[in-house]
């Protein structure tokens, strides 16, 4: 196998740094291991961010997500770790990660974590009729 998991996130320049826009990435096949049982945990991750100067490159993001497959991690910890790593790589104006974990023992876990650049002001929302 030539492709391997990686913890290195690659970036590229934001093509429109003067405009606030949202990038949404859905990752329906995230897996990690339960740190108590060693059994796999499955989740759908949704990453939404308003880039500043950089965007995350998708192939490197895929390989980064793959790096969690054989690691034990609590849902809350892994969601925040992913947020911290991506935010450190691209310094977005705003980022939100939603981790919707599949049922385990009759319980669904959803974790939402956010990062905001304190110097960034979100634009006023536009409400269309």
TrEMBL record:
Record key words, sorted: Cytoplasm, NADP, Oxidoreductase, Queuosine biosynthesis
Keyword NADP: yes
Location(s) in or outside the cell: Cytoplasm
Pathway: tRNA modification; tRNA-queuosine biosynthesis
GO function term, MF aspect, one: preQ1 synthase activity
InterPro entries referenced in this protein's UniProt entry, alphabetically: GTP-CH-I_C/QueF, NADPH_dep_7-cyano-7-deazaG_red, QueF, QueF_type1
Keyword ATP-binding assigned: no
Any single Pfam family the record assigns to this protein: QueF
Enzyme Commission identifier(s): 1.7.1.13
Active-site residue list: 34, 41
Highest taxon above the source species: Bacteria
Primary residence: cytoplasm
Gene Ontology CC, one term: cytoplasm
GO biological process: tRNA queuosine(34) biosynthetic process
Residues annotated as binding substrate: 56-58, 75-76
Catalytic reaction annotation: 7-aminomethyl-7-carbaguanine + 2 NADP(+) = 7-cyano-7-carbaguanine + 2 NADPH + 3 H(+)
Family: Belongs to the GTP cyclohydrolase I family. QueF type 1 subfamily.
Function: Catalyzes the NADPH-dependent reduction of 7-cyano-7-deazaguanine (preQ0) to 7-aminomethyl-7-deazaguanine (preQ1).
Cross-referenced PANTHER family: NADPH-DEPENDENT 7-CYANO-7-DEAZAGUANINE REDUCTASE (PTHR34354:SF1)
The name this protein goes by in its record: NADPH-dependent 7-cyano-7-deazaguanine reductase
Protein's organism: Methylotuvimicrobium alcaliphilum (strain DSM 19304 / NCIMB 14124 / VKM B-2133 / 20Z) (Methylomicrobium alcaliphilum)
């Amino acid at each position: 196998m030539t492709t391997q998991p990686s913890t290195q996130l690659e970036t590229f320049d934001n093509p429109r740094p003067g405009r606030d826009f949202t990038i949404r990435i859905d990752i329906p096949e995230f897996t990690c291991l339960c740190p108590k049982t060693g059994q796999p945990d499955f989740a759908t991750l949704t990453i939404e961010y308003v880039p500043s100067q950089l965007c995350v490159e998708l192939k490197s993001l895929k390989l980064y997500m793959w790096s969690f497959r054989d690691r034990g991690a609590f849902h809350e910890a892994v969601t925040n770790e992913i947020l911290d790593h991506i935010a450190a790589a691209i310094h977005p104006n705003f980022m939100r990660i939603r981790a919707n974990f599949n049922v385990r023992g009759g319980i669904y876990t959803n974790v939402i974590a956010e990062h905001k650049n304190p110097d960034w002001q979100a634009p006023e929302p536009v409400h269309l009729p």
